[in-house]
């Protein structure tokens, strides 16, 4: 066992990782690659496509080529080692695999990623076995690509390393939209599948049902949620988390603010209409925002979102309001 296996798994679903693309997943879903738990297997469990495997499995190739899966790291950072685990894949494991990595700003789609660097060269694999590969690159990576040659199944991909944070997203303050800090949902356009209160609940959503999801729109409008912030403040970071929403996330979203102490009818941009990716925790810098007492999230045209976070600093009045609210009930 190598020392780097004690480092965090930067790709794990538990820290926000996601498999953003795979060219094939006919027999077993790509998302299994980054499940935090160890793979399991139960004999004679057959679905419509054959034996059910806890991993990623592609169909048998009948022409030259390779299969690939692209993973967005939940924690971008320096990779020290990679584990390719073929647990329980015995007659259907890929004979070879390699891993590439890249660094991208923002939230590109898989086909927009460039500047790939090979961090694990083409290497032979065995069935039902963990394979450990040292990585020597000192670059900060945000995505990795696993290539299997020519096809087959991989149970887990572990990408161990040291997180390197983006300093632009590190600011002091509190989540002004957090339910636990006193924020409340004022109204919303649709709550067909789940409550908008889920958007501002504590912690990360662990499955799709823990977010907010609307019915499918058949008109030209869009869905929205309005919030009263915990107290008056200035938003500096907006986090829009579509984790677990894969085929039903919004295509775009915007966030606006309002200071009802001055004018309850005037709204200003905190985050202009921005493209979103499925199953992704998006974080955006909000520069030079005015003070706000309320916020509104618009999603276009509909869909689901796991969490909305609006990090910022309280105004002097906001600090006093929170103190008074607490003192009156203590």
From TrEMBL:
Catalytic activities: allantoate + H2O = (S)-ureidoglycolate + urea
A Pfam family of this chain: Allantoicase
Cited InterPro entries: Allantoicase, Allantoicase_dom, Galactose-bd-like_sf
Entry keyword annotation includes Hydrolase: yes
EC number: 3.5.3.4
Domain (Allantoicase): residue spans on this chain: 16-163, 182-314
GO biological process: allantoin catabolic process; purine nucleobase metabolic process
Molecular functions per Gene Ontology: allantoicase activity
Keywords in alphabetical order: Hydrolase, Purine metabolism
Superkingdom assignment: Bacteria
Annotated pathway: Nitrogen metabolism; (S)-allantoin degradation; (S)-ureidoglycolate from allantoate (aminidohydrolase route): step 1/1
UniProt xrefs under Gene3D superfamilies: Galactose-binding domain-like
Record family assignment: Belongs to the allantoicase family.
Protein name, entry field: Probable allantoicase
